[in-house]
Amino acid sequence: MVYDFYASGSEDQWTLKENRDAFSSILLRPRILIDVSEVDLTTSVLGFEISMPIMIAPTSMQKMAHPQGELATARAASAAGTIMTLSTMATSSIEEVASAGPGILFFQLYVFRDRNTVIQLVKRAEKAGFKAIVLTVDRPVLGRKEDDIKNRFSLPANYSLRNLEEPNIGKKKDETNGSVQFCHFLGEFDPSLNWKDVKWLQTITSLPILLKGILTSEDARIAIEYGVSGIIVSNHGARQLDYVPATIMVLEEIVKAVQGKVPVFVDSGIRRGTDVFKALALGASGVFIGRPVVYSLAAEGEDGVGNVLKMLREELQLTMALSGCASLKHITRHHISTDSDRA
Ligand code: FNR
């Protein structure tokens, strides 16, 4: 049940496969005889210096993978000098994660019907020293993952959604008998979420806001008008709408629309250093990884996550060296070719 929850995509899982296949259609154009004795992977994201352009995407319920869950991930991210994004639906609290590792943390926000819950979450993240809010915008309603339906997926009883345990969060009065019932959180997301709420969110926090889940240049342009601090091109790891394109296929369109006004990041299907290189060549400022983190957490806890980050780092470094790029700014559109370039 847990493996299927982590691994599967929605409906036909076409996008899940496409997220990987699409990378295979992009080829590298290495340049030679360039001094690559030093390869510099460092970069800055929203003004924060990090060791590499590879960050951790929010994934829910990490304690199902390992007893240390999000705490282990936070420590591994911090040790690797990169950013971890904590999910609203985490099995460790905002405060626990903040005290687990001294690294840079972003908080991923889901918007509930009860806006007071949202305000509380944002205030707690601010107070705990989180550096940005990642507003997920591709989940007004839950996508249909048939494996989860077949398995009757539910969070094992020994874990809880620690950010949602405040006395009044997730509990509502049952009008019929007056008793307090625990709501099923997955049903409490607000499907009316819209651009006005982005403005509202800006009034309740001074933290930078990234929108996660943009797949079109139209929405990227609106996001800029609304003054967001960055965009994460994402199809939620193929867990929401099936038959949307792989993110690597729409990245360039979005980068062009954004015209450098804010950084554009990408996730979904990134498994190799070459994938990261291709994303950077298409104009991404950095990438996020989801499943590689939960899988490595399940295998080896904090060490596992540390290893995955190290592997990706080494692979990116190798790709850069073999392509003649001594630093991230040397990676250009000319270092790759897409199907349409070759047509
Ligand atoms: C996710 N994702 C996700 N996104 C989000 O905004 N909030 C969340 O709570 C979760 N939870 C979640 C759980 C699991 C098990 C997975 C695999 C994914 C989506 C995640 O942030 C990211 O967009 C994708 O995981 C990226 O794709 P890859 O790297 O998994 O292919």
Automatic annotation (TrEMBL):
Pfam families: FMN_dh (PF01070)
Substrates-to-products reaction catalysed: glycolate + O2 = glyoxylate + H2O2
EC identifiers of the protein: 1.1.3.15
A molecular function (GO) term: lyase activity
PROSITE patterns assigned to the protein according to its UniProt record, in alphabetical order: FMN_HYDROXY_ACID_DH_1, FMN_HYDROXY_ACID_DH_2
Signal peptide positions on this chain: none
Enzyme class name: oxidoreductase
Cofactor dependency: FMN
Domain FMN hydroxy acid dehydrogenase, residue spans: 1-341
Locations listed in the record: Peroxisome
This protein's UniProt keywords: Flavoprotein, FMN, Glycolate pathway, Lyase, Oxidoreductase, Peroxisome
UniProt xrefs under InterPro entries: Aldolase_TIM, Alpha-hydoxy_acid_DH_FMN, FMN-dep_DH, FMN_HAD, FMN_hydac_DH_AS
Family (UniProt): Belongs to the FMN-dependent alpha-hydroxy acid dehydrogenase family.
Protein name: (S)-2-hydroxy-acid oxidase
